[in-house]
């Protein structure tokens, strides 16, 4: 190769290297300007975070873009292969999560009949520093449901919610009837059952059909231990009802934040929580878990009613609830009856917690506290101390809560049930099935 050819070859190589360098730099700047493709953004920069899932009929959607904004902060993230995403956010309480529907597969839309902008959700950062925001995705365009179908669907959901409330309300009513205690820690018994089902099914990997009975048994044992270690010693010391109620409030707070400490502040799902809906008629549908929940609640309530009316210990429980002093004078072991009541109340509350976790859906450290006032409202509405009254009050409250959102904003649906409670008590203070008592 002569000198001229060598120089031409060298110039070509230099141009090739320069072109390759320019292409590399261009690609690098392009990647820098693109939104993050990972499922985590700014997680290492901030202590707080917003996390979530995007799924279509329980199948994850990859590559969906979401924008998290609030307080002058904005970040963009895309879902990973599991449909999950996580964004670190600065200190603040409220953030807006917007799902870009243009990044969804063709023919897919975000559907929520109660929301005009279902692709936009508000995220509230809790004490744990994180919150979960999930998107439920459906195919096609939003269907228009007539008022009658909406009413029927809300009535069915209200009945399901009322039966679930009834399980918790019956227990708290029995405790009040036999001991006179308004147990505020009953909310944490509800949470306890759901958390135990989560631990057995998810953490230990056992099937959910086995985890639920185990959770109920553990809840019953929890009720037994609370009575044996706390309530019975306090009763023997002659502690007054007001002091016992204050102890129950303290116990409620202690248990609630214990759940948060060990499980965190996020929302966790039980297996089968994303079960598909089954069409009933018209546009009315109900998920498999909700249908099973209604059957289980009904069967348990029927068995409990038979136990309360037909068995010896059930009759003794009714006697103690009516008049503890007279029951003791008749030879009934009041302490034994109270112990049985605590065990049953905790077991039914634990089952209610599992069903509530499927109805919400999800398990949180404060999930029991979210329905505690509704449980008290149901007990008071039906009649304090009466198990059947608690059931009737629960069904009424459940139906009112679910159907009221047809007429008022869904954020106020719990308020409507409490207003009805106040109105009824103005005309019938003893409740629907309660008896009039002479005072003084």
TrEMBL record:
Stretches that traverse the bilayer: 158-177, 184-202, 208-226, 238-259, 291-309, 340-359, 371-400, 412-428
Task: Enumerate the subcellular locations listed in this protein's record, separating them with semicolons.
Answer: Cell membrane
Assigned keywords, A-Z: Amino-acid transport, Cell membrane, Membrane, Signal, Transmembrane, Transmembrane helix, Transport
Annotated GO molecular function terms are:
transmembrane transporter activity
The UniProt entry, under InterPro entries, shows: ABC_transp_permease, BCAA_transport_permease
> Where primarily located?
membrane
Q: Where does the signal sequence lie? A: 1-38
Domain of life (superkingdom): Bacteria
Q: Which Pfam families match?
A: BPD_transp_2 (PF02653)
Coiled-coil ranges from the UniProt annotation: none
Report how it sits in the membrane.
Multi-pass membrane protein
Q: GO terms for CC?
A: plasma membrane
Task: For this entry, list what GO says about its biological process.
Answer: amino acid transport
**Similarity section:** Belongs to the binding-protein-dependent transport system permease family. LivHM subfamily.
Which PANTHER family does the entry link to?
AMINO ACID ABC TRANSPORTER PERMEASE PROTEIN (PTHR11795:SF445), BRANCHED-CHAIN AMINO ACID TRANSPORT SYSTEM PERMEASE PROTEIN LIVH (PTHR11795)
Protein name (database record) = Amino acid/amide ABC transporter membrane protein 1 (HAAT family)
What taxonomic lineage is listed for the species of origin?
Bacteria, Bacillati, Actinomycetota, Actinomycetes, Micrococcales
